[in-house]
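Hey all, sorry for the wall of text incoming. These are the two entities for the joint prediction.
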Amino acid sequence: MSKRVGEGTVELTSRPRVAAWSSTVGKKEREGPLGISFDFTLGDDLLGQKTWELAEAAMLRDTVCRCMDKAGLEPEDADVLLSGDLINQIMAAHFCARELRVPMLGLYSACSTMSEALAIGGMLVDSGAARRAVCAVSSHFSTAERQFRTPLEQGGQRPASAQWTVTGAGATLLCGKDYAPDNAETVVSMRYATIGRVIDYAIKDMSNMGAVMAPAAADTLERHLLDIGRAADDYDEIITGDLGKVGRDLLLELLKEKGVKVDRNRVWDCGASIFSPEQDAHAGGSGCGCSAAVLNGHILGRLMKGEARRVVFMATGALLSATSVLQGETIPGVAHLVVLERDGE
Amino acid sequence: MSKRVGEGTVELTSRPRVAAWSSTVGKKEREGPLGISFDFTLGDDLLGQKTWELAEAAMLRDTVCRCMDKAGLEPEDADVLLSGDLINQIMAAHFCARELRVPMLGLYSACSTMSEALAIGGMLVDSGAARRAVCAVSSHFSTAERQFRTPLEQGGQRPASAQWTVTGAGATLLCGKDYAPDNAETVVSMRYATIGRVIDYAIKDMSNMGAVMAPAAADTLERHLLDIGRAADDYDEIITGDLGKVGRDLLLELLKEKGVKVDRNRVWDCGASIFSPEQDAHAGGSGCGCSAAVLNGHILGRLMKGEARRVVFMATGALLSATSVLQGETIPGVAHLVVLERDGE
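and here's what came out:
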């Protein structure tokens, strides 16, 4: 049963269990500093499909299937699939879902979609509306570049604040207490969710997504801490989605302005961590597959081993389309937040 | 507290209240057979904005505000806004939300987005995760034509199975029992939700959306009736989103094949009803604003007056993008279903 805490946070009192997770990435991501934490690496970025879009759908589907398989379950053992991606009309998610006989809720909050899916999935499991919910999102470098930026063949110069869309997918299976498989190690659960507000700081530069998303991240984190009466440092780690190096610094600055005290060493960003400086990804990785893969590899792995015990996972999204940018609109951001904790915290 | 019934239906045992609703349409929709049921008609389809996309966002925002105002509330009295539209990256919903200080969940299931929003919103209210949830979606003829079809200036010939994207928006405010405003007449509540599966009958003709969506509608309705042990005729009306004339006939045929008995006079479609034959809209209206406006005008109006007492509202979506169609992909469909009932049913 869910309980509202403060103005805008939901406590999931039954603490939905993380019963399984899986991640898939491309070759470049595998070669990065977090490489060994991912389950599966694509041999090539087409996966034998005729288009990048179908390849992304196949990567997402395979990631869902591997996640369910790790729990000893079939995809249809989930009551609901919560899924989205960056392709127009979230076609990767829909093409993934048409091959799985699982009821699907289609979501979109740009690169914040993984935490949006976890927040809704967690709430549905908490209330008993779903026994098992699988949350899965993806992004693909080539589908995103084609859609949002310039043809790859053009080889345009990228500014230093630009980020590199991650080819990757992540899936997390959330289960009600009585519905986790017997063999699953379920010491990690979801305890809180704070839904983000859409915040617009009037930024128009689509090569500086970090600046777009940092204000939304600061807003959600501040609201969350006020709601539940915790200090930022009550968390071992505060993990953002894909602010990148530029956005992470801005977030720290905004938190300081708001009077939110935080040990900066506890704040790290999936996008700023997935590539090494030598990989020429400028400000870091982006795409909803970035935080999804890092969550379902590195982060959950460390929580499970007890290397972190209580973390904020807050993916961040820049809300734009190719049309909105061409029409000269500013770019709002959003950040949804969930709290993952080991039992006993 | 939510209760699962059968394989895939959720019973909302607290029966979230419909506390207010509002609809906005364009001039053509106002001139149709349901014209008088809509709250507000646009003077022109640009609403004083410089682009159709901004006009759609403004229409959606105004509809949310009017809905909240009818309940004597401000937009920020809602704990969450569940919203989506047809524009790439659901930019109408995001631009609407940046002006409202309400946490937002972005959704996309094409023209099924209104019932997706109601299903999730209802579940969140039922569990106590939200006290008040406002569900709002939109579509706009000119933004959809530009994005999915051909430039309006081209004046292409439309086949008889084609539908006409409705310029319209609808918003519904769902409240927990203790959170409906005192003056609101809340005799209508949401009792069940059945999330749809993505169904692909391998249709490639984007001018025949009815045929794409009918199999998904038949699947969801059949599952719902099996789950809760009701016959189709236990409902006064079974209302689909925008199957249009072609899709409605196919749905009846598919239900017959499946052995689902239904009085065909009880099955009607928002898309097939919003325009008269003289309005040259061929197979009917479409767009997520179509079923959203009809729900938040005609349907809820009749439920409130007792002209219908227990109905299925099942919006239907065709899952395609301009890219997926150009790449020769087939078009899957989806249909989410909610049950609205007057107290005492």
